[in-house]
Specification:
It is built from no helices and eleven strands. Strands 2, 4, 5, 6, 9, 10 and 11 form a seven-stranded mixed β-sheet that branches. The protein has a four-stranded antiparallel β-sheet with strand order 1-3-8-7, with no helix packed on it. With about 120 residues, the protein is an all-beta fold. Strand 4 and strand 5 form a beta hairpin. The chain is globular and about 40 Å long. About 0% of the residues lie in helices and about 50% in strands.
Length: about 120
């Protein structure tokens, strides 16, 4: 069992930045590939980015390339998402998730554990 707790969400103006964190507890964090997803009101949850267990390989959805950066600190059992140049369309609840597998999973169905989410609101 892995418990995930997101933090760092909030209200920011367009063009601003936020850094989300996802603290993991339970089983060995470094055993899991990790991902970030988001769900905007009235929309399906979508993939943002994922990182492999070692943290040396990442994959991003096209709509965040160049703006968002996923990273992890296995010593601290923490996953991060640095978000720059935020736009109102980035407003959503952001979730972190853990997948016990090698590689960089992008499908939600691959992930075994989910956090409760943190709200990000970008004002225009």
């Amino acid at each position: 069992q892995v418990q995930l707790v997101e933090s760092g969400g909030g209200l920011v103006q367009a063009g601003g930045s936020l850094r989300l964190s996802c603290a993991a507890s339970g089983r060995t964090f470094s055993s899991y590939a990790m991902g970030w997803f988001r769900q905007a009101p009235g929309k399906a949850r979508e993939f943002i980015a994922a990182i492999n267990w070692r943290g040396d390989s990442t994959y991003y959805a096209d709509f965040v390339k160049g703006r968002f950066t996923i990273s992890r600190d296995n010593a601290k059992s923490t996953l991060y998402l640095q978000m720059n140049t935020l736009q109102p369309e980035d407003t959503a609840v952001y979730y972190c998730a853990a997948a016990h597998m090698i590689g960089i999973p992008t499908s939600q169905r691959t992930y075994d554990y989910w956090g409760q989410g943190t709200q990000v609101t970008v004002s225009s």
